[in-house]
Amino acid sequence: MPLSGLVHEGFVIRLTKASSRGTSARAAFVMLVVAIAAACSATSGPVGPGASSPAQTAAPLPASSTGFVPGGWSGTLSFHVVTDSDTTETSDSGDPGSVYFTTTTLHDVYRGDASDEFTVTGTDDAESDVYGIGSVELRGPASSRGTSDERHLATTDKRNSLGCHYTEEMGSEISGSWTMDGTASGEIRFQDDGSYTISMSFSPADPEGDGYETPLLPRRQWQTYAILEGAANDCPPPGTSEVTDTYGPVLGFASSFLDSGDIGGSIDPANPGSVVDGTQSFEVSDHFPPTTLTVSWHLVHDGPIDVTYNEPPLE
Question: What pTM does this model have?
Answer without folding.
Answer: 0.71
